[in-house]
Amino acid sequence: xxxxxxxxxxxxxxxxxxxxxxxxxxxxxxxxxxxxxxxxxxxxxxxxxxxxxxxxxxxxxxxxxxxxxxxxxxxxxxxxxxxxxxxxxxxxxxxxxxxxxxxxxxxxxxxxxxx
Length: 115
Hints:
The protein is mainly β. It has strands spanning 16-33, 36-53, 56-70, 76-88, 97-109. The chain contains no helices and 5 strands.
């Protein structure tokens, strides 16, 4: 965060808290990689929540989606998430509408159904 910018100057605390919940719409899919079939899940997310900055709360939301790729290992997957968080803050330098675009990629360990 650039503390010299108009938006950065409004942050007095180092901590920012986001409390949110949402809905996920999931669609199983399969794609061909060379001579093998790879299972995956395509999903869309939508939700709302509260952003807490400087001790005050602001209503916000998010839109996003992603893919969970399951190679031929039953307990393992690679997950790719794209999400855009948006809220309204008192910005002395311009528009009060703020958004943060995030991309996350990482491993996911699945619980076997026999447990």
